[in-house]
From TrEMBL:
Domain spans labelled Amidohydrolase-related: 65-429
Name of protein: Hydroxyatrazine ethylaminohydrolase
Organism: Gordonia jinhuaensis
Keywords tagged on the record: Hydrolase
UniProt superkingdom: Bacteria
GO terms assigned for molecular function: hydrolase activity, acting on carbon-nitrogen (but not peptide) bonds
Database matches in InterPro entries: Amidohydro-rel, Metal-dep_hydrolase_composite, Metal_Hydrolase, MTA/SAH_deaminase
Ranges in a coiled coil: none
Entry-linked PANTHER family: AMIDOHYDROLASE-RELATED DOMAIN-CONTAINING PROTEIN, AMINOHYDROLASE SSNA-RELATED
Length: 456
C-alpha cells in the first residue's frame, strides 16, 4: 500500500485514513503520530490514536510526514510566462518594472495567456505542495474584458483542483473602472456560485475567493485605495497590497514626502481585513502601526532576497503579534513557485535582520499564517473540522537520514523537496509526485507555444 489506497486509485473516497506517518504536523504547535482521518472534504481526526473498525480507503504513509497543505499568500501567476527575462536579474526595481511591463505588452496579454500562465503556476504549486494560492493580478490591458481575465484564472483552479484567491489588483488603473470591474467579477464568479450573500468573498465550496489589491502607493493614489476599499466593504472582500519594497519607499518619499506605511494608515488601509506583502526595512514605529491595526503581513524572500530589494524583519513582526504568512511572489523575480524552498530561504536569512526564525515557525507561516491573511480559518491546519488540504512528504530516503527532528528537517534537509501526495478538499490531486487532475507537461507545452506565436 505504499502511496496508494487499499481499494484502488479513486480520487475521492467518503472516508480516507492516512496510516503509519512518522509525524503529523497538525499545526504550528502540535505534532502527533497516528491516523489522519478525512471524511468527505474535512479532517475528522488527527491524533495519536489509531482508527479501527471503520470502512475506509486506507493509505500507507509509512516513512512520511503529513502536513497541512501549504498556502501561498502572494503570487503573480502571469509572471509564470516571463521567467529569467534578460534585463530582470539583479537590477533596481524601477528598471525591473519597466522591463516586465514591456514583456506583458509584447506578448499581447489577454485571457488566453492569463489562463495558460495560471495553469502553469497552479500546476507547479500543487506539485510543490501548495494547495491554496493568492494571485495578485496587476495587468489589465485596455479593451480586454476584466471578467474574462479573472474567469480564465478561476477556471484554471477548477480544472486542476486547487484553491485560488484571485486578487483584482491595480497599477495606475482608473479608480472607478477598477472598482466597477470588481463588482462585475464578483457577480460573475461568486454570486452565481453561492446560495446566499457573498460574505467573505468565497464560493460555497471554498475553492475560489475574490479580493482587491492596489499594487502599492508607488503605483496607485488615494483615490484608487478609496475606490477599492468601498467596493470591498460592499461585497465583504479581503484587501491586499504591497509596501516597503525598494521603489515603493522611493516614490512615496518623492511624491508624498512620507513613507508607505504612513500613507496606508492615512488612507484607511491598515485594518484587520488588510494583508501587506513584502515589508522590507520597516521601522519599529511602522511595525507598531501595523500591529495596532490588526493588519496581517506576507513575507516574500524568494523575490526580495535574490533581487537585492531587502529582507522583511520577520522576528520583529511576529514579536509584535502580527500574523505573518509566506508568499513566493511572481516568476518575474522569483522564478520558482516553490513555497517550501522559500520557507527554507526565509529561515536561513532571518538571522541577518534580527532574531532567527525557526523551521517550525516558518512552516506555521506557510500554512496557518498565510491562511489568516485570507481570513480562512479552515485552512492551514489539520485540526478536526479543517478543510482536508494536506501533503504527504516522503522522508525515508538518504536525504533525510540522520535527521533528529523530521518536521524541522522538511526545511533543513533536502532543498527543493516535493511532496509524494497532495490532497485538496478531500480529493487527491498529486499521487507519487505526479498530477492526477491534468497533464503538467501539456500545460508547459501550450504556454511555450503561445509565447512563441505571440512574441517576435
Amino acid at each position: 500500500m505504499t502511496g496508494r489506497s487499499a481499494d484502488g486509485d479513486s480520487a475521492r473516497a467518503l472516508t480516507t485514513v492516512l496510516r503509519g506517518a512518522a509525524a503529523v504536523m497538525v499545526d504550528g504547535q502540535t505534532v502527533t503520530t497516528g491516523d489522519v482521518v478525512i471524511d468527505s472534504a474535512t479532517i475528522s481526526k488527527a491524533d495519536d490514536v489509531a482508527v479501527t473498525g471503520v470502512a475506509a480507503d486506507v493509505v500507507d504513509v509509512t516513512g512520511c510526514i503529513v502536513t497541512p497543505g501549504l498556502v501561498n499568500a502572494h503570487h503573480h501567476f502571469l509572471q509564470s510566462a516571463f521567467r529569467t527575462l534578460p534585463g530582470t536579474r539583479f537590477v533596481p526595481m524601477a528598471q525591473w518594472l519597466t522591463t516586465m511591463a514591456g514583456a506583458y505588452a509584447a506578448a499581447h496579454t489577454d485571457p488566453e495567456l492569463t489562463g495558460l500562465a495560471a495553469s502553469v503556476g497552479l500546476a507547479e504549486s500543487l506539485l510543490n505542495g501548495v494547495t491554496t494560492v493568492a494571485d495578485h493580478h496587476l495587468t489589465w490591458p485596455a479593451g480586454v474584458d476584466p471578467v474574462a481575465m479573472a474567469t480564465a484564472t478561476a477556471q484554471a483552479g477548477r480544472t486542476l483542483g486547487a484553491r485560488v484567491a484571485f486578487v483584482r489588483g491595480t497599477a495606475r488603473d482608473d479608480p472607478q473602472a477598477a472598482a466597477d470591474s470588481v463588482s462585475a467579477i464578483v457577480e460573475a464568479l461568486l454570486l452565481d456560485n453561492r446560495s446566499g450573500d457573498v460574505g467573505a468573498g468565497v464560493t460555497d465550496d471554498g475553492m475560489l475567493q475574490i479580493a482587491v489589491g492596489p499594487s502599492g502607493v508607488h503605483a496607485d493614489g488615494p483615490e484608487t485605495f478609496a475606490a477599492l476599499a468601498k467596493v470591498a466593504a460592499e461585497y465583504g472582500l479581503r484587501r491586499r497590497t504591497q509596501a516597503n519594497e525598494q521603489v515603493d519607499v522611493e516614490i512615496a518619499a518623492q511624491r508624498y514626502g512620507r513613507r508607505p506605511i504612513e500613507l496606508l494608515d492615512e488612507w484607511g488601509w491598515l485594518a484587520p481585513d488588510v494583508t501587506i506583502a513584502h515589508l522590507c526595512e520597516v521601522t519599529d514605529d511602522e511595525i507598531a502601526l501595523i500591529a495596532d491595526s490588526g493588519a496581517t503581513a506576507t513575507h516574500a524572500p524568494g523575490c526580495d532576497v535574490p533581487m537585492g530589494w531587502g529582507v522583511a524583519p520577520v522576528a520583529r513582526l511576529l514579536g509584535r503579534g502580527i500574523s505573518v504568512g509566506l508568499g513566493t511572489s511572481g516568476g518575474g523575480s522569483n522564478d520558482a513557485g516553490h513555497l517550501l524552498a522559500d520557507a527554507r530561504l526565509a529561515m536561513q536569512v532571518s538571522g541577518l535582520v534580527g532574531e532567527p526564525v525557526s523551521a517550525t515557525a516558518l512552516l506555521a507561516m506557510a500554512t496557518a499564517g498565510s491562511a489568516a491573511g485570507l481570513g480562512r480559518s479552515e485552512l492551514g491546519h489539520l485540526r478536526v473540522g479543517a478543510a482536508a488540504d494536506l501533503c504527504v512528504w516522503d522522508v525515508s530516503d538518504v536525504h533525510d537520514a540522520g535527521v533528529a527532528d523530521p518536521v524541522a528537517g522538511l526545511l533543513w534537509a533536502s532543498p527543493g523537496r516535493r511532496p509524494r501526495d497532495v490532497m485538496v478538499a478531500g480529493r487527491w490531486v498529486v499521487r507519487d509526485g505526479r498530477l492526477v487532475t491534468a497533464d503538467s507537461r501539456e500545460f508547459a507545452a501550450r504556454l511555450r507555444a503561445a509565447l512563441a506565436a505571440r512574441v517576435d
